[in-house]
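Lecture 7 notes: from sequence to structure.

We start with a single chain of 299 residues. Read the sequence below before looking at the structure.
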Amino acid sequence: MYGNEFLAERFEENRTQLKAVAYRMLGSAGEAEDAVQEAWIRLSRCDSRAIENLGGWLTTVVGRVCLDMLRTRRSRREEPLDTVTPEPHACGPVLGAQRDADPEQQAVMADSVGLAMLVVLETLDPAERLAFVLHDMFAVPFDEIARVVDRTPAAARQLASRARRRVQGVDPAPDPDLTRKREVVDAFLAAARGGDFEALVAVLDPDVVVRSDTGAGGIGASAQVRGAAAVARQAMMFAPFARSSRRALVDGEPAVISTREGGRFSVMVFTIARGKVVEMSVINDTARLPGLDLTVLND
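Now the structure, written as tokens:
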């Protein structure tokens, strides 16, 4: 159907969409580029004369590659974004080590997708994520998605439906206690954004503690800061991230989602008692996200 040069030209015509699909699946510009590269390798090795819809074929191939990469992440206890070296795929060669990601490019791509969307997508099962991204974002039919996830079209539709309910989470019914807690969180964020040390101390319990995961994937390593003054000083350094934060709920407790370097993100969960912040848990490890009941709230 295509000569080599013409095939390469047609592939380049689809590259932007393919990378968009891969980025929404993987949340990593570097890994997205690797997935697109793998799709080209598979295309160059197959009989392109049998492909009637090249764009659709490439989209489903990229989806399958990303699904493999996501499952590999989980088998490794989900290493942090941009640190995973993809495993060889059954129909392709071993890819090289992950290239150094451009932090500015990561941030631009994160903005284009939406921080809230990326965070919620990270909480989905890989098959749910693929079904939602391919169908709801790129209009791939369920019969094609079914072949990628090795399910029936009806099952693929169910995967997308479950994912859609998570992605389209809305604010819960008003809860007076939750409203008061959110007011405390809002006061903390306002003080952090404004660099107001005294206001930060005022909203913190004297024995407040902050726990955050650290190290490779956050597994088995944590950092802790205790006391209102120490936490307030740390929060002053949090100011640049506080400006880009989004409100959320995690397991029913107030939380905020903030961007970090390289377009990555962290989730901070607040425990409020007696009108004060008594504990904060900072989650930087993406391996923990699927276990969270996370809803991004409308600002």
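DSSP finds twelve helices and seven strands in the chain. Keep this in mind for problem set 3.
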